[in-house]
Amino acid sequence: MPGLPGDNLSAIRDRLNLRPYLTREPVILALLSALVVVLFLAVTGLSRLYHAQQESLANRWFMRGSTDLKAGRYSGAAEDFRTALLYSRDNYISQLNLAEALIGLKRMTEAQAYLTNLWERQPENGLVNLELARIASQEGRTEQALRYYHNAIYATWPSDQEVERRVTRLELIDFLLRINARTQAQSELIALAANLGDDPSEQARVGDLFVKAQDDEHALAAYRMSLRSDHRNLAATKGAGLAAFELGRYGIAQRYLQAAVAADPQDAQSAARLKITELVLRMDPFQRQISVSRRDRIVIQAFAAAGERLKFCSTPNASGSPANGQPDLTQSWETMKPHITEWGLRRDPDLVETAMELVFRIERETSTACGPAAETDTALLLIAKLHEGS
User: Fold this and answer.
1) C-alpha distances in angstroms, 362 versus 236, 325, 331, 356, 373?
2) What is the pLDDT of residues 134-156, one digit of tens each?
3) Which pTM does this prediction carry?
4) Cβ contacts of residue 306 below 8 Å, gap of 6+?
5) Is the domain defined by 189-283 classed in CATH 1.25.40.10?
6) Which tens digits make up the pLDDT trace of 198-220?
7) Terminal-to-terminal C-alpha distance of the chain
8) How do the residues of the chain divide into helix, strand and coil, expressed in percent and rounded to 5?
9) Are 386 and 248 a contacting pair, CB within 8 Å?
10) I need a surface site. Which of 129, 178, 239, 339 has the fewest CB within 10 A?
């Protein structure tokens, strides 16, 4: 049934009344959206401003802490870095520098706590491993110290990695020498020398460390490597002479020690070693390319020196008893003495070896019973050692 005209008019009137609201709603939504965007941007800006201010404060305190740390003002540095961490709590470098300041203050427990946390975050960090190694070495935790030192050697370093690793290995070697772990120190030194290059001062330093590790063979090699690049290096020249002397290579020792004494006449140690070296070279009857007559004269001289050593050792000491407890040596020497002449040695060439065996025996036994030996006796002892087992 068709609707009445009045009803249609009412519907039209209602639609006309809603039109303002319908046209206003999108505008309101747009305004609200814009307001949300503005508020978001404002909050973001404020947040960025806040974080920038926090970062600026953190940097300011970090710089102050770095200055104090370099100057050795550890207490001030620790407070500076703590303040910096209030504004940047997880800053790795600030925590690391705080740990170093605490180490400077000898507050090892606190420093280790920070370093352990940093190690867990970055176990490959070279400086963190090195600081942990130092703390462990000071506290006598040898195994942990060695582990951290090796970690540091093969870790990541922010600057020149080769230099940092070499410095770390040198520190490890010093630690091994302090705890008398010479075999391990020698191994580390060999690894270091293999990657050292031709720097004469570094090679000389490694030579000194080999001497401390009682490895004269590698010490001599390091000194000679140093002298190839800088033949005027006095420390390397002296070191090479002393190392060669300890190895019983007296011809090489003489050359280097002569150069060392010529360069520094006040070098008493090199001069003393040179004197003994020259005596060894002069008094060894078994060296090659000497005449029979010279050999015989050397044997007569050595035999006489051994006799004088026996006389000195036979002098009664303060208790009234002879210092030498080997009277059979004196008897053997006196029995052989009439035959130790140039004619007697020429007549019986085997007597050379027999006489020198007695000389060496006298020098060995009196060296422990009679106190310091004269230079000639020291030379004879070294000659005896040189020909042991031959």
Assistant:
1) 36, 11, 12, 10, 12
2) 999 999 999 999 999 999 999 98
3) 0.76
4) 333, 358, 359, 362, 363, 377, 380
5) yes
6) 788 899 999 999 999 999 999 99
7) 142
8) 80, 0, 20
9) yes
10) 178
